[in-house]
Amino acid sequence: MKTHTSETQATVTPALALQFLREGNARFVNNLRMSRDLLQQANATRDGQWPFATIVSCIDSRTSAELIFDQGLGDIFSVRIAGNVINTDIIGSLEFACHVAGSKLIVVLGHTSCGAIKGACDHVELGSLTELLSKIQPAVYEESRTPDPAQRNSKNIAFVENVADLNVRRSVRSIVNRSYILEHMIGAGKVGIIGGKHDLASGEVTFFDDTWLHDNTSLQFIAG
After folding, report:
1. Could you please report the per-residue DSSP string of 170-208?
2. What is the pTM of this model?
3. Which residues of 49-76 are buried (b: 16+ CB within 10 A; e: fewer)?
4. Do residues 101 and 75 lie in contact, with contact meaning Cβ atoms separated by under 8 Å?
5. Reduced to 3 states, what is the DSSP secondary structure of residue 85?
């Protein structure tokens, strides 16, 4: 399969970009990866790149976005940080990916059994990691399905996964609320954003439909 060009990127809508990722993940789950000439793709993109989507995911070694969405060189931007948290540098990278390089979709991708989430659940403090985990703490405090304090730690798998889901949703809101550029592009229908979660055991990605923002109407449901 050939890599994307400026012409093919221009034909991609946010919804179509999401469809491409759904189809790619289905191929990954069923071990039906598309045949690609990676050297040809490297040569084809040496003078420019036109990725159709941008994935914000965790640094976990099992969550390579290119693999789990079955994409080749030049197809997607991959922004990786522990716990898929959002900071100013991540926002700037997303603004570059969408406003400058033409990406049509942002996906905030969490995953099961996330070490950063577990660390936040246990209130771990360790060097500079302390500051990173503090960005996940609001999701820990927001989790309301586990009232027993003794169960609010990384040993409780259900609690960890609830926090991971909340963290993804908070990250989607943070991107929209902190970037006027991206908010405007989403409102105009030029870019979409959605959260999702990768199951490490099955490989399947579940997209959170309640976080799908792609026009002014959908933005109204995430204000604040």
Report:
1. HHHHHHHHH-HHHHHHHHTTS-EEEEEEE-TTT-PEEEE
2. 0.94
3. bbbbbbbbbbebeebebeebbbbbbbbb
4. no
5. coil
Q: Give yes or no for a contact between 3 and 75, defined as CB atoms under 8 angstroms apart.
A: yes
Tens of pLDDT along 90-146? 999 999 999 999 999 999 999 999 999 999 999 999 999 999 999 999 999 999 999
Which tokens in the block code for residue 158? 């259900």
Q: Is 93 exposed, middle or buried (0-12, 13-18, 19+ CB in 10 A)?
A: middle
